[in-house]
Task: structure prediction
Amino acid sequence: MAMKQEVTVEDKLRALYNLQLIDSRIDEINNVQGELPLEIEDLESEIAGLSKRIEKLNQDVANFETEISNRKISIEDAKTAAKKYAEQQKSVRNNREFDSLSKEIEFQELEIELAEKRIKEAYAKIEHKKEAIAKTNEKLEAQQAHLDHKKNELNSILKETENEQNELKSLSDQMAEKIDNHLLTAYQRIRSNVKNGLAVVAIERGAAGGSYFTIPPQVQIEIASRKKITIDEYSGRILVDAALAQEEKEKLDAILN
Result:
């Protein structure tokens, strides 16, 4: 039976740095997308709001049109009633009946006058609503065109980077499998806590990459020996020597190219 090959600390460091290189490249691709996904989400939300507003305004117009139609019917009813009362006045027997019918006619005329006033107001409100609909539609069309442009821009970026992203994701999964869960969890925790996502950095000019704090010579020697995982006491990042970093960068470049 074949012996299981032992995974050395150096193997782990190489896998960790490789994973960092891959994840950093994925970060770069995502950065190229920039704020586009969020901008698209905001525009879609705004367009949905504008569409809902137009729907509400159209419903308001429909309600006013129904009101106008109903009031026109009530005017016709009032005219019919007034005409009926006027006819009845011709055959009354006394002044009291005549005055009573006169009041009914007056009431119907007031009803007609009030209905005509409400119809006029409703037409004015419809015009106001239609102006609001036109302005909202104009804004909706402008934002839809803006959204289409942003989506095309994002799709263009995604199309250009799709193959590379798929390859990088596959490589990232492969590297993650070479790292034990405890170390992988530590890597992911450090990565999420630092601004640029760099959890594993090489020593550059005697200091951790991106840091101004010098690493003691003895510690640099230990790091170069690749016998243990070393954490930078200032930044909390995992450290590797420059030679290992260069070798892994060249290997990854060769794979991607």
Remarks:
- The beta strands are 200-204, 207-208, 230-231, 238-240.
- The radius of gyration is 40 Å.
- The domain at 36-171 is CATH 1.10.287.1490 (Helix Hairpins).
